[in-house]
């Protein structure tokens, strides 16, 4: 039978992947991290709400983590894109864009998610700067600011309850017909939150900082921040080709030990959790590393 090239391959080498690698590398597991260097937060100037690193740049957190991992000769790095994956008996084989074929006993997906930003002129340039995905990460920096939320329906009600604590100048932009029922509309009115259904044409900004939102022939409105609840997809279809189940919300289905529905395959970070933060990604990665190590340890302790 073919020997695996590595005990563990981790696809995705950002916060969750590096964290999983740390637990594994320190357990003397022979680990390869394949990463193509496209973390979701790369445009944000400062990352917040992660102890000891509050306000650091995403890159500085990454560089420090990678430097610490490079001390472990058990961990190797490959700058490449994993494009296919298949089972080879008890092993998994991953192929990469640059033509490498590498096998492992256990596979971890730490691949993050791909945000699908609405096609609104100027929005992408502001993403992570003044267009915000999460109040815990950037809400404090925009407290009391004149704020819009591009969202609708039930999701908007959830977000509004969190954001209204940070500012009382809040407007919902549904960017088309609103999905609110009568009770929700009454609640929004009671809380002084207006709803604008006009189609958004563009976001005017200075270096990513929102200034005005334009709605075709209607008057533009000045805002300082916009929360955007955007849809997402998984980064890789290797998941599906291996048979990993995806939840209705689009996350990789995992149990409380970070195991996917396929034996030997694990997932951690944004790809399998709606609690989207560096702290949660690091925590999930650390747990994943420990769980993978335990499976390997149990299998060799006969
Ligand atoms: C704009 C923005 C700002 C944010 N700001 C904050 C903040 O201030 N504070 C905070 O705590 N959180 C913040 N977050 C959330 C935080 O960035 C994420 O929760 C965290 O990055 C998730 O880590 P991850 O490792 O799961 O995924 P990611 O960091 O997204 O990394 C996934 C990695 O996998 C790689 N990858 C994917 N597919 C493949 C493949 N097939 N082959 C090889 N490599 C692959 C990618 O290139 C990437 O390097 C922000 C998110 C966004 C979008």
Short description:
Residues 7-285 form the FAD/NAD(P)-binding domain. The chain is α/β, with parallel strands linked by helices and 302 residues long.
Instruction: Label the overall shape.
Output: elongated
Strand content: 25-35%
Which small molecules are bound?
A: flavin-adenine dinucleotide
The SS-based structural class is alpha/beta
How many discrete structural domains?
A: 2
The CATH class of the largest domain, by name, is Alpha Beta
CATH homologous superfamily caption of the largest domain: FAD/NAD(P)-binding domain
The biggest sheet amounts to: 7 strands, mixed
Report the total helices. 8
Integer average pLDDT:
97
Order of helices and strands: EHEHEEEEEHEHEHEHEEEEEEHEH
Cα distance, first to last residue? 19 Å
**What would you call the quaternary organization?**
single chain
Kindly identify the CATH topology of the largest domain.
Answer: FAD/NAD(P)-binding domain
Instruction: Supply Rg.
Output: 22 Å
How much helix is in the residues? 25-40%
Q: Examine the secondary-structure arrangement and name the CATH architecture of the largest domain.
A: 3-Layer(bba) Sandwich
Q: Care to count the β-strands?
A: 17
Low-confidence segments, given as residue ranges, are: none
């Amino acid at each position: 039978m073919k020997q695996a090239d590595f005990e563990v391959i981790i696809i995705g080498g950002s916060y969750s992947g590096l964290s999983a690698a740390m637990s594994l590398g320190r357990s003397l597991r022979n680990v390869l991290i394949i990463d193509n260097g496209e973390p979701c937060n790369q445009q944000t100037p400062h990352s917040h709400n992660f102890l000891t690193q509050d306000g650091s740049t995403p890159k500085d957190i990454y560089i420090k983590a990678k430097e610490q991992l490079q001390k472990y000769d058990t961990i190797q790095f490959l700058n490449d894109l994993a494009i296919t994956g298949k089972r080879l008996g008890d092993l998994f084989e991953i192929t990469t864009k640059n033509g490498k074929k590498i096998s492992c006993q256990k596979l971890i997906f730490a691949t993050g998610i791909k945000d699908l930003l609405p096609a609104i002129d100027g929005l992408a340039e502001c993403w992570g700067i003044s267009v915000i995905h999460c109040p815990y990460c950037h809400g404090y920096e925009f407290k009391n600011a004149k704020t819009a939320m591009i969202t609708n329906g039930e999701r908007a009600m959830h977000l509004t309850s969190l954001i209204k604590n940070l500012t009382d100048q809040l407007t919902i932009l549904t960017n088309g017909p609103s999905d609110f029922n009568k009770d929700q509309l009454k609640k929004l009115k009671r809380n002084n939150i207006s709803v604008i259904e006009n189609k958004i044409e563009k976001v005017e900004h200075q270096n990513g900082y929102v200034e005005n939102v334009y709605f075709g022939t209607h008057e533009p409105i000045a805002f300082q921040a916009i929360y955007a609840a955007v849809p997402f997809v998984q980064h890789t279809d290797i998941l599906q080709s291996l048979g990993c189940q995806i939840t209705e919300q689009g996350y990789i289905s995992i149990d409380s030990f970070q195991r996917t529905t396929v034996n030997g395959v694990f997932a951690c970070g944004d790809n399998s959790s709606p609690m989207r933060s560096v702290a949660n990604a690091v925590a999930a990665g650390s747990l994943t590393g420990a769980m993978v190590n335990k499976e390997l340890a149990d299998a060799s302790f006969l």
